[in-house]
Amino acid sequence: MRAFSFLALAAVAAISFTANPQKAQAQVAIEIGAAPVCPYGYYDTAPYGCAAYGYYGPQWFTGGIFIGAGPWFHGSENFQGRVNNRFHPEHGYKGPLPQRGEKAEPRNRVDKVAHFKGNEMRDGRGHVRG
């Protein structure tokens, strides 16, 4: 009887070591919605408000269309573009900001920002570069 108990205990131990539990697959889905529709692009940090004219340099636009920033960035992996961070509210800017859905003023061309003076390189994903 003692041998049978030992054999049963050994069998239970062997089964528990060889059983492969199913690994749970982690599924994370983040719904970010559509990119903000802003005439001169939007800031690359939450809450993704519309950027002031002059914040982004011309390399952030292709054919007059903003290439995106933050979760909606559509540039190349090694993209770097100039911004003028003096036009960012986190750096003290308190001037006028366009509203979502507002149209650009014809005199404010995004491909040739008048007297653009970029003072920071950014990668489109919210990171300062170079």
Would you give an account of this structure?
It is a single chain. The protein is largely without helices or strands and 130 residues long. It is 13% helix and 9% strand. The chain is built from one helix and five strands; from the N terminus they run H-E-E-E-E-E. The strands form two sheets. It has a three-stranded antiparallel beta sheet, with no helix packed on it. Strands 1-2 form a two-stranded antiparallel sheet. The model has no long low-confidence stretch (mean pLDDT 82).
Distance from N terminus to C terminus (CA atoms, Å) equals 77 Å
Structural class: little secondary structure
Helix content: 10-25%
Shape: elongated
Helix/strand order, N-terminal first:
HEEEEE
Total count of helical runs of at least 4 residues? 1
Q: How many strand units?
A: 5
Strand content: 5-15%
| Gyration radius over CA | 27 Å
Average pLDDT metric: 82
Low-confidence stretches: none
